[in-house]
Design goal:
The protein has 400 residues and is of the alpha+beta class. The protein is built from twelve helices and ten strands. It is globular. The two termini are 18 Å apart. It binds flavin-adenine dinucleotide.
Length: 400
């Protein structure tokens, strides 16, 4: 399958409608709340989503039978980037993390009943969800194998016990996809199972919303406690003991869609910086005529184009049905760092204005930092890419 860079006219039209919605409806709301989703009322989230539904760009990644556009990864890339221009854009289109990745997982792994009960309302935006994997030390983090939350079999189902933290979107979520150990010990490579746990299940407590550097994720990042939470066999997502495998099903596309959305924000920052460099004068010329500022602007363009190309390569592999572990690791590492550089340079070009709340650069700077940590820290991805390269060098007949 060749990689196509041009878009289908229908997708192009949807991207145009997204750009208009972001400019006319979403950015004013982002400005009003200064990108702070914790202050954004639920009613405003629904208003934004209604506007996206009216523009026929809602849930672009979800199958049409669930009310979405059913776009493949490559087409999503353009649309998610356009949505990502605003911190609230993905929320408006219902393609924000973690719901977007959870919808994908439910579509691929969920049973017909689970799709009806959880995917359908999630795709319509009537409920939200979270994905609960990370635990305080010594539990799962960069190393998922350290998973210590347990699910013990009973005569009528399972009992879950454990603690999770930094669980995005948990405040107000209708359910959680919880990763728990069903066999083996912390440190064992397998033995994890995913469970669908309703937020009102007895023993499931949202302990606190953790205060973090970033503020734009609706539902915050929470610490969750599971104390003897009983669930039935119908709560098992997919098959028992296959949780780590399903995590890869979710993570490959999810880390790539994160790249798409953050690239949109980087594009916005770079555009603001180029505009500012054209207007602001110093030492007898516009900033944009000074060589060192030109270098910052050029490096922004290089980082953005290289990021987009890597995202498309990852999309192409994923659309071809591959797991795409290597390329999504490479894309995630590069894009997370590149978008950070772009926003940093763009802030620099704005001078003092850049660090003030009079411009959106400071807000962007705060939001982007965590992307080098979640969905695998840069170091973990580099470690995995390097290990694979060494393995391939030792066994050149193996695949990359
Ligand atoms: C904003 C945000 C949102 C998040 N949302 C969610 C969520 O919704 N659900 C969820 O389950 N989790 C979520 N997380 C947690 C996230 O997935 C973890 O933070 C991540 O997996 C890293 O785990 P850790 O924080 O425990 O870091 P640790 O595992 O303690 O690692 C710390 C550092 O060690 C280094 N390191 C790790 N591995 C290697 C290696 N192989 N080689 C070299 N150095 C290495 C890296 O520098 C890494 O940053 C979120 C985190 C953040 C910051």
């Amino acid at each position: 399958m060749p990689i196509q860079f041009d878009l289908d006219p229908q997708v192009e039209a949807a991207v145009r409608r997204t750009t208009e919605l972001i400019r006319d409806v979403v950015l004013p709301v982002e400005e009003l709340y200064r990108g702070n989703a914790h202050a954004l009322p639920e009613a405003v989230r629904r208003e934004l989503q209604d506007a996206a539904k009216k523009a026929e760009i809602f849930a672009p990644h979800v199958g049409q039978e669930y009310g979405g556009l059913g776009l493949d990864m490559r087409d999503r890339a353009a649309l998610f980037e356009a949505a990502g221009h605003s911190l609230f854009g993905p929320l408006a289109l219902n393609c924000a993390a973690p719901d977007e990745g959870n919808m994908h997982l439910l579509e691929v792994v969920g049973s017909a009943e689970q799709r009806e009960r959880y995917l359908q309302p999630l795709a319509l935006g009537t409920i939200r969800s979270c994905f609960a994997m990370t635990e305080p030390a010594p539990g799962a983090g960069s190393d998922p194998g350290a998973l210590s939350t347990t699910a013990r079999r009973t005569s009528s189902g399972w009992v879950i016990n454990g603690r999770k933290w930094f669980i995005t979107g948990a405040q107000g979520a209708g359910f959680a996809i919880v990763m728990a150990r069903t066999s083996g010990e912390p440190g064992s490579p397998g033995g994890a199972t995913m469970f669908l746990v309703d937020a009102d299940a007895p023993g499931f407590t949202n302990v606190r919303a953790i205060e973090t550097l970033d503020e734009s994720m609706f539902g915050g990042h929470c610490e969750l406690l599971f104390e003897d939470v009983h669930v039935g066999d119908d709560a098992v997502l997919g098959a028992v003991d296959q949780g780590f495998d399903y995590a890869q099903v979710r993570l490959g596309p999810a880390r790539t869609t994160h790249c798409m959305r953050w690239l949109g924000l980087a594009r916005r920052a770079a555009d603001l910086a180029a505009e500012r460099a054209g207007e602001r004068r110093a030492f007898g010329s516009a900033l944009g005529e000074l060589g060192m500022v030109q270098q910052l602007i050029a490096d922004n363009e290089i980082d953005i184009e290289a990021s987009r190309a890597l995202i498309l390569k990852a999309c192409w592999e994923l659309d071809s049905g591959a797991r795409a572990g290597r390329i999504t690791s490479i894309a995630k590492t590069f894009v997370a760092e590149a978008v950070g550089r772009v926003i940093d340079r763009s802030l620099q070009i704005h001078g003092a204005l850049g660090i003030s709340e009079d411009a959106p650069l400071a807000r962007m700077y705060r939001e982007i930092r965590a992307f080098r940590i979640y969905d695998g820290p840069s170091e973990t991805h580099r470690w995995s890419v390097a290990r694979r390269a060494v393995r391939v060098a030792a066994h050149p007949e193996g695949t990359r």
